[in-house]
Amino acid sequence: EPEVTQTPSHQVTQMGQEVILRCVPISNHLYFYWYRQILGQKVEFLVSFYNNEISEKSEIFDDQFSVERPDGSNFTLKIRSTKLEDSAMYFCASSASAGSQGTQYFGPGTRLLVL
Amino acid sequence: GQNIDQPTEMTATEGAIVQINCTYQTSGFNGLFWYQQHAGEAPTFLSYNVLDGLEEKGRFSSFLSRSKGYSYLLLKELQMKDSASYLCAFRSTGGGNKLTFGTGTQLKVEL
């Protein structure tokens, strides 16, 4: 069964450093998403991406965040200058469509720790 | 505004049936999803409702009432492996397909 994959599984970085989190969505999916989950809290929407454009972003997704689909398979989330409060599990998700078949399937996550 | 509520914790006995409720408020509703999340892992899709009524998938069923802003997840023949957090999420209208999640209901299945 096709799965969303993410690398790395864990990332430790110093405050102020740039990090790039990588995702390979399910191959025939067209819609891509990033969510985050701070330890012990709820899953929060960051951004959705379709047709090489951001479709929607949350208030969390400020100028320090960017997304890119650099090739036909990868989808990346970049945090330019990490803050302590960026420490969280970051989940990538993908869906085949936006309609009734638009179930979002989540990757295993990247646990980011900012020191 | 947008809001979604579900109980924080529930306990049930192996082999029993448990119902996890979820209430939501949103101005633009486009579907209600249930996910299962084991600690430290990704949410795993369980069930989806966009129209009123009951959707059944094996041991799991989900119900939706759009007029009441209410859904429930029903788990039958509980197994120890069902101990997990169950996340209710609604999808908003608009182009982004944004999911808004509740805090999750931590279900503990006991012998």
Describe what you observe in this structure.
- By secondary structure, chain A is mainly beta.
- Chain A is about 0% helix and about 50% strand.
- Chain A has no helices and eleven strands.
- In chain A, the strands form two sheets. In chain A, strands 2, 4, 5, 6, 9, 10 and 11 form a seven-stranded mixed sheet that branches.
- Chain A is globular and about 40 Å long.
- Chain B is an all-beta fold and about 110 residues long.
- Chain B has no helices and eleven strands.
- Chain B has strands at about 5, 10-15, 20-25, 30-35, 45-50, 55, 60-65, 70-75, 85-90, 100, 105-110.
- In chain B, the strands form two sheets. In chain B, strands 2, 4, 5, 9, 10 and 11 form a six-stranded mixed sheet that branches. In chain B, strands 1-3-8-7-6 form a five-stranded antiparallel sheet, with no helix packed on it.
- The mean pLDDT of chain B is about 95.
- The interface of A and B includes residues 44 and 95 of A.
Q: Can I get a quick summary?
A:
The complex is a heterodimer of chains A (115) and B (111). Chain A has 115 residues and is an all-beta fold. Chain A has strands spanning 5-7, 10-13, 19-24, 31-37, 43-50, 53-57, 65-68, 75-79, 88-95, 105-106, 110-114.
State the main characteristics.
heterodimer, A: 115 residues, four-stranded antiparallel sheet, globular, B: five-stranded antiparallel sheet
Give the topology, please.
The complex is a heterodimer of chains A (about 120) and B (about 110).
Chain A: E1 5-7, E2 10-13, E3 19-24, E4 31-37, E5 43-50, E6 53-57, E7 65-68, E8 75-79, E9 88-95, E10 105-106, E11 110-114
Parallel strand pairs in A: 2-11
Antiparallel strand pairs in A: 1-3, 3-8, 4-5, 4-9, 5-6, 7-8, 9-10, 9-11
Chain B: E1 3-5, E2 9-13, E3 18-25, E4 29-37, E5 44-49, E6 53-57, E7 60-65, E8 70-75, E9 84-92, E10 99-101, E11 105-110
Parallel strand pairs in B: 2-11
Antiparallel strand pairs in B: 1-3, 3-8, 4-5, 4-9, 6-7, 7-8, 9-10, 9-11
